């Protein structure tokens, strides 16, 4: 009886297999055909997604105090390592040797005073739940640790958990931040070129001092005797000084305002800083927030200070956190050099330490983005978009005044200059439309460019197969002129499908070449890949971005105040519709973060224009939690306008298909933004697809995540637009 039952069961299974075999074969053939089609199409188009995204991305370019060494971090397909180059040859070599695409960032690299060591941080910043990013979902978890690597032999030592390392002037201690306070680790070098030893017991790693609030922007006095910092107290902040020898803390000119950016004079006797005046901040759709500010200089010995310059009261005078890093305010002998947008563009000015009128050091319709000061503070090298608004080039600025001198020009994009080798040379990162960013060295006059890591680019990187984006200017419905870059579909016949791309930020600018920001370096690679696959792509530098002056960046009614920049996206699509080589019925759009917000806006408001979209971690409701805190809490008018400015308010009109991509450990745009939008799309029966990355953050930490996201996006557009 049991044997008969077994035979009947086997017979039933055989019948099922026979009946399903054609379906299984068909499914297998379809899957194989899809893979083969994708591979064949990619091969025919000249390069793969993996190839165009294979270039190592350089970041954190720094120089030793004497300019004899430069170092940077290479992200090579997710494998992050510190590289080093020494004078006079300046030929790069790997200093650390991490081999996994594990999503663990390397940041905060800094040289020891003698340049024999580099301290760095490995691991990302904790989220609001104090969780370190762990995008591989490693059961062991992840840590954010400070390490030191020997620049002579590459030996590496873990110091402690923390961030923002800096060496004490004598090199015998490593100062770092942990939980908003400063800690110190005693270190000593063992002779005979042996490994640096960290003394990490409780007696040698300890908090430097106790203080209310949090500690930010620490900076040693040039004589190494005192440490100035910002004591952050929430709605106000003080400039404070810690004297390690006397074990004392004191505050300079404490007030009800926010004091930031402490800067020592060369003789350690004076301290300059910025005071941001606390004023009433009321949300308005029509008026931007105005933050008046001043520069003060204090005599450190007696604590007496004086105001040497004060801003005006208009929007142009308002303080803006410009992308100048530590060079927002610097000493230049008996002058203070600072950045301002008082004429509508981000420029450098100087003012005497005794006060007086500010002298403009740069002028024109362009923006200064990076600054490197000469050691004698007589001149600076800046990266700007002067005379080439869609790129960046290096200029020499005489800090005593005079006409700036162009050092580089042409089709290159030069960023993050450093003055090295005793002032004889300039190091920077450089790219073109076809060549991604890599470190280079110039002579001091901008001649004789030399690659620092000539073998870093993979041999099969498809530089020669890339298209050169063309500059295009479109006009929005309200008359605003908007700069764009057009990637023409390569080897395409007839009318092509097209895509509108929006960057995130929104304080970003896409360029006529590879981007200096890792996120947009990847976006540029994907736009090139899409063009190679037969899509015409237009990248929109919509209002609210940088590069075109303060009025453009602080445009009225932007974002949660009315989404005025959405007009620019529509204008770009309408431009595509007029092109004879574009099929107006097959226009899609894509973007991430703020660009994801604009992607969702396009699909919600204009499914008649946009046939499909890919939305990476976009904002969908300004009145819900976007990042770590709610927006406009308790302001009914702001909430009303914010809701009207959100894709979620127009979801009833949404008809086009969308691919939503998000990591659920996003610290910039809450994952709930995608959850809520998905609920609405389900209710309306809208065609949507999801690609979710557990434990990934906003700016995907793993190279594998970028590849998966972009491969899914390319496949989605192929299915919906081709």
- CA(first)-CA(last) distance: 59 Å
Mean pLDDT: 90
Low-confidence stretches: 1-7, 9-42, 190-196, 198-202
Quick one: how many beta strands?
Answer: 41
CATH class of the domain at 468-721: Alpha Beta
| Strand arrangement in the largest pleated sheet | 34-35-37-36-38-39-40-41
Percentage of residues assigned to helices: 10-25%
Count helical runs.
Answer: 9
Radius of gyration: 28 Å
CATH superfamily of the domain at 468-721: Alpha/Beta hydrolase fold, catalytic domain
Structural class: alpha+beta
- Report the CATH architecture of the domain at 468-721: 3-Layer(aba) Sandwich
Beta-strand proportion: 25-35%
Biggest sheet layout: 8 strands, mixed
In short:
With 722 residues, the protein is of the alpha+beta class.
Descriptive key words:
alpha+beta; 722 residues; Rossmann fold; 5-stranded antiparallel sheet; disordered N terminus; 8-stranded mixed sheet
SSE order and pairing:
Elements: H1 2-45, H2 49-52, E1 57-63, E2 69-76, E3 79-86, E4 93-94, E5 106-111, E6 117-122, E7 145-150, E8 156-161, E9 163-167, E10 173-178, E11 181-189, E12 196-198, E13 205-207, E14 214-220, E15 227-232, E16 237-243, E17 248-252, E18 258-264, E19 270-276, E20 293-299, E21 305-310, E22 329-332, E23 335-340, E24 347-352, E25 359-360, E26 368-373, E27 379-384, E28 393-398, E29 405-406, E30 413-420, E31 425-431, E32 438-443, E33 450-451, E34 470-475, E35 481-487, E36 496-502, H3 518-532, E37 536-541, H4 550-553, H5 566-578, E38 582-592, H6 594-605, E39 612-616, H7 636-644, E40 658-663, H8 672-684, E41 688-693, H9 703-721
Parallel strand pairs: 36-37, 36-38, 38-39, 39-40, 40-41
Antiparallel strand pairs: 1-2, 2-3, 3-4, 5-6, 6-7, 7-8, 9-10, 10-11, 11-12, 11-13, 14-15, 15-16, 16-17, 18-19, 19-20, 20-21, 22-23, 23-24, 24-25, 26-27, 27-28, 28-29, 30-31, 31-32, 32-33, 34-35, 35-37
